[in-house]
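Retry 2 of 3 after timeout on previous attempt. Resubmitting structure tokens to design endpoint.
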């Protein structure tokens, strides 16, 4: 749902954690993909130098940045960072922070993203309108300069989809009262941690965020998701040190957790990657599909080291962004530069892992 006139809206608004892995994936977008993605970056509370990471993004890719996890203090105002960005504004921000968001918008793009957390911001339409008008008044922005994000949080099962769908429809009806620049629905569908999943075999997980968007397709909303991560992020949760990739395909993710071949990380990741490139959901264009696919193929051919958990998230996110763009972009539209395909050989085929039956 877009406001009439002006430049076309991006086709995809992923909500990504402002961590090394997700930002590395964004940094490797080519110019064509960067023009189709409008990322929303959640700056984690432990981040101390967000400007340095944001400054490595491709030229022309201006992220929307949510600093609500940081203390409400002047030293955390994005206008001080010196990098182009779009502020993300919650309906319950303090007057001080609203003023800071307005300053950031005026400094760079004269735009903002207003984030309505469907299910958490449980307010009626009149109260929501009053809160939005306060945002516009305090930031000096008009509705036409604001993209509305209907953030549903996690939808991890069919029951969640059935619960959230009517909330999205009510929020969309309210949004239709105002001249928003665009309206997007975003949901997360990945479980909080894959540590409970089986190892040494691909595990299929439904993409319930994708299902939700299709269920509300008649509303004409833009699409957003949380990449390959959970919407509810706990920075204190223990990480999973096993080599893990989360590969997007059709209506599902295939999660690979590998402890095969003993304790050597490079052997385990090589075996994992050989299994992935032999799977039916490996893209037909192989390494040319995305930077992440290229990095996986390098490991399958033992052309690089094992990497780290941040690398595994980066490769998975890179593939996911490319896959969603391909699904959302009309047929006949090129999503990637031809340079990705030049000089790439067909993927090496290795031993296939055990695949769970599709439902």
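Retry 2 succeeded. Sequence:
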């Amino acid at each position: 749902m877009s406001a009439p006139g002006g430049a076309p809206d991006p086709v995809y608004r992923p909500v990504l954690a402002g961590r090394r892995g997700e930002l590395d994936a964004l940094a490797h977008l080519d110019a064509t993909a960067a023009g189709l993605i409008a990322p929303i970056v959640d700056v984690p509370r432990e981040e101390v130098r967000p400007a340095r990471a944001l400054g490595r993004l491709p030229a022309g890719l201006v992220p929307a940045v949510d600093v609500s996890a940081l203390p409400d203090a002047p030293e955390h105002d994005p206008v001080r960072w010196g990098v182009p960005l779009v502020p993300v504004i919650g309906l319950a921000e303090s007057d001080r922070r609203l003023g800071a968001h307005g300053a950031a918008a005026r400094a760079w793009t004269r735009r903002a993203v207003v984030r309505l957390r469907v299910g958490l911001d449980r307010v009626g339409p009149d109260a929501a309108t009053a809160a939005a008008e306060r945002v516009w008044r305090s930031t000096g922005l008009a509705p036409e300069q604001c993209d509305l994000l209907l953030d549903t949080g996690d939808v991890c099962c069919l029951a969640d989809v059935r619960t959230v769908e009517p909330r999205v429809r009510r929020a969309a009806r309210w949004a239709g009262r105002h001249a928003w620049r665009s309206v997007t629905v975003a949901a997360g569908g990945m479980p909080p941690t894959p540590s409970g999943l089986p190892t040494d075999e691909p595990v299929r997980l439904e993409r319930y965020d994708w299902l939700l968007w299709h269920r509300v397709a008649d509303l004409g909303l833009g699409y957003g998701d949380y990449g390959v991560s959970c919407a509810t992020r706990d920075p204190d949760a223990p990480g999973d040190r096993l080599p893990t990739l989360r590969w997007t395909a059709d209506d599902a993710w295939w999660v690979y957790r590998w402890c095969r071949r003993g304790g050597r990380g490079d052997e385990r990741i090589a075996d994992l990657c050989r299994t992935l490139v032999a799977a039916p959901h490996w893209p037909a264009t192989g390494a040319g599909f995305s930077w992440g696919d290229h990095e996986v193929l390098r490991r399958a051919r033992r052309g690089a080291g094992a990497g780290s958990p941040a690398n595994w998230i980066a490769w998975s996110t890179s593939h996911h962004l490319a896959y969603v763009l391909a699904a959302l972009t009309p047929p006949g539209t090129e999503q990637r530069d031809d340079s990705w395909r030049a000089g790439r050989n067909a993927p090496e085929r290795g031993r296939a892992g055990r695949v769970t039956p599709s439902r």
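Attempt log closed. Residues 78 and 146 are 17 Å apart (CA to CA).
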